Known about the structure:
By secondary structure, the protein is α+β, with helices and mostly antiparallel strands.
Amino acid sequence: xxxxxxxxxxxxxxxGQPVVAATAPASALPAAFDxxxxxxxxxxxxxxxxxxxxxxxxxGILAAxxxxxxxxxxxxxxxxxxxxxxxxHGHARERGYTAAAWPEDLFDDSATKGVTxxxxxxxxxxxxxxxxxxxxxxxxxxxxxxxxxxxxxxxKQHIFGYGAVAACLVVRDDFFHYQRGVYRASTTEGxxxxxxxxxG
Length: 200
């Protein structure tokens, strides 16, 4: 019950901590940071629509990977568009998932098997289509995966030093009425889960 307040306090206390990542724009964590505006440069890939499918985990993971690739290379607007269909309708299905998937498994697949590009397996929310047979010759792999669960200071360090972080949340009934600002649950009634990319 006290987890949100405890994590918020840890996140606020992180400002000013030293940063060791070579790709970070400064040597200490700022009070606020947004990958959409780093010295007037936007490193975040466009928001995409998962449609009527429980594939948000693929969208959150690939948004984090695409944004991280652009940020660590200092290349805003990097033309990297990975295939959510390949990650969800391919790799997740191979693991036996049909309606959702665990992020850890798909991060592992992103690092070990790799993910092809959107033009090699365009996303359809109904799962139709298949990857170009040449996909093993045109893919990207995550260089590594770090679990930052429950550590707001480490999440801030990672975003500032390397780029976006995939995060999952329990969807409460009131989430469907959310419009803007910081979401705070006002009910305990849950309806499932959702995955996003944290960019600041």
